[in-house]
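Blinded run. Sample ID left blank on purpose so nobody reads anything into the name before looking at the predicted structure. Input follows.
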Amino acid sequence: MLSFIATLHVLGIKAKERVLSGEKGATAVEYGIMVALIAVVIIVAVTLLGGNLKTMFNNVATQVPTTAP
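Blinded prediction complete.
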């Protein structure tokens, strides 16, 4: 537990130094983290909604007439 607190303390110090150093904008690492989180959200959404969407489209497909009048 002590090492976890020490790690948080070091991260806090590094964040403070970065803010005070005047750096502007996000780094490539931050962009990578954002892209990874967005990808995880998309994967979770598709996984959760995939079965429901498949069922809905199958229901619509069975109701559409197959021959044109």
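Unblinding after everyone has recorded impressions. The chain has a mean pLDDT of 80.
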